[in-house]
Design brief:
single chain; 208 residues; alpha/beta; Rossmann fold; six-stranded mixed sheet; 6 strands; Flavoprotein-like_sf; FMN_Rdtase-like_dom; Multimeric flavodoxin WrbA; oxidoreductase activity
Length: 208
């Protein structure tokens, strides 16, 4: 089914533990999402969250120099959110968990028409790591983002797991593994399609 073109924007939240300008496998995957979104005429901004003073808490603005409100405004302005995280001890990074905790504030916020603030936004997830855990991480992040009102695109993730107990990182590979790249391309194509559809016919307001 063909939908009329509707201008979309995306934001990629890279949840590496490594501040800029350090090299990061998670940031590399985030940039790959940015490039693939651009191929669909969807401009995307990548934000390395650890570079910003995002305070702990579950409010939209924790005050005292909290930099989450500026990031939140870009999430609200976007139609597609990509969350990329490394795997640590089989779980998403602490930075990713903090993003999820801050997004929890959206449960109490609505758009001008009374619908939840994150309705009609599409979510994708990317995971890198040198150990198993990608499926569990994707499932956890999916559940949280869906609880907050976002829609998960079909096959809306990609991941790469290196060999257990070895030191090769995603950023050290000579090329991106075809399966990881194919999944990324498919996830982006599905997300863009879904975001355009939702921009034409969004979700109804929840029953009162």
């Amino acid at each position: 089914m063909a939908y009329e073109e509707s201008r979309q924007k995306a934001v990629v939240l890279t949840c590496t533990l490594s501040p800029s300008p350090a090299e990061s496998s998670t940031a590399l995957m985030g940039q790959q999402f940015v490039q693939e979104l651009a191929s669909h005429d969807v401009p995307a901004t990548e934000i390395r969250v650890v570079d910003h003073d995002v305070r702990p808490g579950v409010m939209a603005d924790m005050g005292d120099g909290d930099e989450w409100p500026a990031i939140r405004s870009q999430v609200i302005d976007a139609s597609i959110l990509v969350l990329c995280t490394p795997t640590w001890a089989g779980h998403p990074s602490s930075v990713a968990q903090r993003v999820i905790e801050r997004l929890d504030a959206e449960l109490g916020k609505t758009q001008d028409d009374g619908r939840p603030s994150l309705f009609d936004k599409v979510a994708l997830v990317g995971v890198v790591g040198n150990e198993d855990g990608a499926h569990a991480i994707v499932a956890d992040v999916y559940q949280a983002l869906n609880d907050f009102g976002m829609t998960i695109a079909a096959k809306g993730c990609t991941y790469w797991n290196g060999e257990a107990m070895h030191k090769t990182d995603y950023k050290d590979l000579s090329e991106t593994p075809p399966a990881t790249l194919s999944a990324l391309k498919g996830a982006v194509a599905n997300a863009v399609h879904l975001a355009r559809a939702l921009s034409i016919s969004g979700y109804p307001a929840p029953p009162k």
